């Protein structure tokens, strides 16, 4: 599991780095070279340096918009970070940080904040002051509730909270009006009854939880394209599933489903349906194949 999480973190870093044009904005990997540079320094990476603290001269990099401090031995977010008022992308993955300081609210231009593989037990409410945030990654921490601060940031488009201990999700999730990608996999969720999903949600990952029933509000997600609820405790799917008219891929593997409602025939865009690991009889398999001839079904 740790290898998988680390791989996800590395992919996340790749995604962050892909946003930086290396020719236009060269990334400096030590403070000495950055200090000597005759050009303005916009991007720095101290990845895997074994650092316990950040260099004090980092505060002089007042034009910095990208900072990667992944894979060090930091136990806190040093004050130098919060002097970087132009910072837009911050990666502190794979450290040992236990909390986010109040000063996080100073990073008003931050759009991407990745803090995977740390030791967070909660998220500072001051994060809600960052109204330009579009992407937050807090996977593989020790969070036990969905961070309330995120509900106050309508600009968010992507949230990853996988591999935590989350058991409670606020019913007002739809306050995050621009949310398109949500990953809540590998948590402790068993009840989503009253949760209202944002209208723009496109990718929803709920696999490896303890969910017994999909919420009614989910079936109103007319823009949802990818749904993964594998490895849960689902015994049935509501006929209201017909509301998911945009869905392209649905993973229902490793649940307790014996059949699916006839309304699945209304999902004309559904290309892939995974049902492996469910107690479905052969006769039901044949019925479902005829019901959805346009769908590749995996039993």
Automatic annotation (TrEMBL):
EC number, as in UniProt: 2.3.2.27
Limits of the Disease resistance R13L4/SHOC-2-like LRR domain: 80-189
Any GO CC annotation of this UniProt entry: cytoplasm
Keywords, sorted A to Z: Acyltransferase, Leucine-rich repeat, Repeat, Signal, Transferase
UniProt xrefs under InterPro entries: Leu-rich_rpt, Leu-rich_rpt_4, Leu-rich_rpt_typical-subtyp, LRR_dom_sf, LRR_domain-containing, LRR_R13L4/SHOC2-like
Gene Ontology molecular function, alphabetical: ubiquitin protein ligase activity
Signal peptide as annotated in the record: 1-18
PANTHER family according to UniProt: LEUCINE-RICH REPEAT-CONTAINING PROTEIN 30 (PTHR48051:SF13), PTHR48051
Name used for this protein in its record: E3 ubiquitin-protein ligase ipaH4.5
Species this protein is from: Chryseobacterium aquaeductus
